[in-house]
Amino acid sequence: MLVELEQFPYVFFLGIGGIGMSALARWFQANGHHVSGFDKTETPLTQALAAEGIAIHYADAVENIPAEVRENRAQTLVVLTPAIPAESLEWAWLRAQGYDIRKRSQVLGVLTQGRYTIAVAGTHGKTTTSSMVAHLLHHAGLDVGAFLGGIAVNLGSNLLLPRSEQAPIVVEADEYDRSFLTLFPDIAIVTSTDADHLDIYGDQNALIESFRQFVAQLKPGGTLLINHTADPSVAAAAPAGTNVIRYGLSAEQGPELFAAAISAEGHQFHFDLHGPQGLVPNLELAVPGYHNVENMLAAAAVAQIHKIIPEKLRAAVAAYRGVKRRFEFVVTTPQNVYLDDYAHHPREIEAFLRSVRTLYPGKRLRVIFQPHLFTRTRDFAEGFSKSLSIADEVFLLDIYPAREKPIPGITSEIILSNITSPTKAIQTKEQVLAAAKTDTSFDVLATVGAGDIDTLVPQLKLLLTERWK
Known about the structure:
Blueprint: E1 10-14, H1 19-30, E2 34-38, H2 44-51, E3 55-57, H3 67-70, E4 76-80, H4 89-96, E5 100-103, H5 104-112, E6 117-121, H6 126-139, E7 145-152, E8 157-160, E9 169-173, E10 187-190, H7 198-201, H8 204-216, E11 223-227, H9 232-236, E12 243-248, E13 257-265, E14 268-274, E15 280-285, H10 290-305, H11 310-319, E16 328-332, E17 337-341, H12 346-359, E18 365-370, H13 374-388, E19 393-396, H14 413-416, E20 423-426, H15 429-438, E21 444-449, H16 457-467
Parallel strand pairs: 1-2, 1-4, 2-3, 4-5, 6-9, 6-10, 7-9, 10-11, 11-12, 12-13, 17-21, 18-19, 18-21, 19-20
Antiparallel strand pairs: 7-8, 13-14, 14-15, 16-17
């Protein structure tokens, strides 16, 4: 266990550009620590961190580590992301020199220790749901802090600083590498327990067991909000006395917390919330998608637990504007729409594309998808093919490897071969941009994926804004 973080005036991040890492970096910076870091790629996020006064370098070399870090080993905390490759020169040197090196999840566990914690877990939906919880409480006037896995549009950041140590902290509880087992929440939300990260877990049973361990760490008298589709053994692992609330879109599915009178009007979804804390009618959600209605049910229940009255809750839901790259409207005209989404699991892609179809019935839908990780592509190729086939046109980029090495025979082709859409192909980023300039066959465009496909977004926005005038 880490000792008091105040003993480390210097904090160095290996992989500072990661969305979770950058939130921690901002927290340390705001609390008076000297923060610096390495990342392999310069991005708008690292540029923002640099503008906030954080020194960042992009070449993996020991001499690039700031002098104050190299000269103050005992006073420096090194924070590590699992995405850093084992052959990293800086990591190897820091290890050899005996620096205190901790995973991001370990540091997050220390920061939340002794604090009222609301932890949002699940193989998908974590970032959106945690940002919803933080927004609802903040908008209603509560003092709250949050470490988020995305840039919340309302906050303009992935970090919400609390005003006091008594404020609740909202955290995204990541199941990757069993990171969420450093957390001991007062309220836990489990959005899904679908198979994922099988490179870590081996099979879904091991993943489920990890969720069971997480839920078992709820504090006495805590609350578990769990999606009705989650494995039932997860809820059964909650400590005696836990308030367990299942949630879902329909009362027919049997949950205690559900939505009724759901309707889509323009970009907005309207619904009534029914739950153990009472009825809240006429909620208006500006971020579309049935999956987002479901996410908002869980977030709104947390607000009800914190005694947010219906009028304030209704206003907060209406004011929520989402997370960057989650059902983000990039270009909108009366005839055409360009959307961007972070979906990288077949269930996420299916939920996103079915919601797009609901919003734009009869429109010709083109999807550009970048698979994320060789192992995920290998494990879920059939699911990717099926979910992407909802679109009229599908163009695949090459697999984004992130932390992984190539696996023989695992390419985007194994997804493409089983897609049933009338038009499909593998393209380069350059070909995607060239088609956006000249091809008029589509009405709705969506870029989808968790790799670096987001680098296409500003270029496509510029091209399509000009073309769709």
